[in-house]
Amino acid sequence: MMGAVLHTINIRLSPERMGHTIAHAEDKVILVSADFLPLLEQIRDSLGTVRRIVLLTDEPQTLQTSLRLDGEYEALLAGSVPLPDFPNFDENTRATTFYTTGTTGQPKGVFFSHRQIVLHTLAGVAALASNPVQGRFHREDVYMPITPMFHVHAWGIPYMATLLGVKQVYPGKYVPETLARLIHKEKVTFSHCVPTILHMLLTDPKCAGYDLSGWKVVVGGAALPRALCDTALDRGIDVFAGYGMSETCPILTLSHLSGAELTSDRETQTSLRTRTGKAMPMVRLRLIDEAGQTVPDDDRTPGALQVRAPWLTRSYLKDPEDKAGLWSEGWMNTGDAACRDSAGSLRITDRTKDVIKTGGEWISSLELEDIILRHPAAADAAVIARPDPRWGETPLALVVPRPEAVEPEREIVRHVKEFVTRGVLPKEAVLVRVRLVEAIPRTSVGKTDKLTLRAVYLDKDD
């Protein structure tokens, strides 16, 4: 609020990439937790623009560091003199910067103005607080984010929580038992996280004894698998999906259920909760084919998803010419393929670059992953396209098996074929091959790192 730009640094990036973001953003002052001083020391050669380093610590401690510190935050604050007048500046002044965690090249800087953040906050509150019961976020909630602040302002929801005046709980490291204990102790009612974190919490034996009923959780950053949704519902968790991008501030859609939908059977509820959902206020979405024509809202025809809203980033930092091709004719390109039904509910089918094109048919890697994860033999899974001389591409399923699984490759292929027979998957999905792996690599924000999977497993594929 003093007109400075806040750059939330992704501490999960490699030191080289983290140093690049600091230099690229031309950071002047760094506020650093004592825990991360060793990390900052590793990139000291990238701190050419930095004039001050301010320590953040909860309690006095003896520190050994080669960095020159300019004081401790709380002590500096206690000794400061309040500004006589609140600064006045244009609402279009840049307020925040953070960097996308691309798997190729250096991270790209995304930035937002005060106006954009305020508009996104107001629209988010209108969307979350207006649903009568399911997934409602209101001023008597207790809020605990389980998404890092460097990941799109923790999805912008801390701004909404502050606007509503709710109690906020910040957990530090995302240790499953710590999260469950805080939910119980602080009576947390509203959170958000990526599927990986929720899966860790629900499968950790140390968390089994905690009552999580009534906890509302928005899942985003990746598709919400049906199996995970069912497990959460069994624990009494009000789980539902949200969708957005780093470049969209980020929330665009939410999969809220109406009162009538809440009385539907479990299968229908799971299907609705795991959809991408309906647009927030002030968000306009469209789906276009390769010729640029709008596709029908039949929930079957996929199209490239484009978006308009008053809070979308105008470009990447220091890329005013939009060399990355973020915008086309006034619409932002999301890079996602999706379908939409007649009620306006969106269903992301894949990243456009991850769609598997088999014999002229498109197979959604996300849908195939979701179906594989419904099989009890699969603990985790990812699907990538495997080059094929006859079909062009066929799906390769990389599966982390559960310890008790018997012949998981054969059982999962049989499981996929059952869904083909039922008409849920296109017939070309029977060409799936299953390879067992020890783990699925993730990016720094918990998304499946398919670039790494392609590099590692396609070269080994026979």
Question: How many E strands?
Answer: 22
Beginning-to-end CA distance, first to last residue = 58 Å
Strand order of the largest sheet: 7-6-8-9-10-11-12
**Which whole number gives the mean pLDDT?**
92
Per DSSP, the total helix count is: 13
Strand content: 15-25%
The global form is globular
What is the rounded Rg?
Answer: 23 Å
Structural class: alpha/beta
Low-confidence stretches: none
User: Major sheet: size, sense and barrel closure?
Assistant: 7 strands, mixed
- What fraction, in percent, of the residue positions are helical? 25-40%
Overview of this protein structure:
There is one protein chain. The chain has 462 residues and is of the alpha/beta class. Helices cover 26% and strands 24% of the residues. The protein has 13 helices and 22 strands. It has helices spanning 15-25, 37-42, 73-78, 114-130, 152-155, 157-164, 176-186, 195-203, 226-234, 266-273, 365-373, 408-421, 450-458, and strands at residues 6-7, 29-33, 52-56, 94-99, 109-113, 142-145, 167-168, 190-193, 216-219, 238-244, 251-254, 278-279, 284-288, 303-308, 327-328, 331-340, 346-351, 356-358, 361-363, 378-388, 392-401, 433-436. The strands form six sheets. A seven-stranded mixed sheet has the order 7-6-8-9-10-11-12. A hairpin with a 3-residue loop joins strand 20 (378-388) and strand 21. Helix 7 (176-186) packs across helix 8. The longest helix is centred in the N-terminal third of the chain and has 17 residues, at 114-130. The radius of gyration is 23 Å and the shape is globular.
